[in-house]
Design a protein that fits this description.
The protein is α+β, with helices and mostly antiparallel strands. Helix content is about 55%, strand content about 15%. It has helices at about 5-10, 15-25, 25-35, 55-70, and strands at about 15, 45, 50-55. The chain has a 3-stranded antiparallel sheet with strand order 1-3-2.
Length: about 80
């Protein structure tokens, strides 16, 4: 069975909304991280209303960010 175009798209790209939900941060936090160079440049759609990243390029950034947030929130694994 083949996957739909939406599933292929979702497998390739991650939205700022998904990042917000995954990291439990605000959208302005994502925008600031992008501006500070803590995230790679996104694909910008509709004049900055939607940001998308290729999952493969942003994943290492998100993993690092998650580790830092766990430490800050006192959730580090022992």
């Amino acid at each position: 069975m083949s996957i739909s175009a939406q599933e292929r798209f979702d497998n390739i790209y991650i939205s700022s909304r998904e990042i917000v939900e995954r990291l439990e941060v605000s959208r302005p936090t994502i925008s600031q991280a992008r501006k500070r160079g803590l995230l790679p440049d996104p694909v910008v759609i509709n004049d900055t209303l939607i940001y998308l990243w290729e999952r493969s390029s942003v994943e290492p950034y998100l993993v690092s960010w998650e580790m830092m947030l766990r430490v800050r929130r006192g959730q580090e694994k022992t």
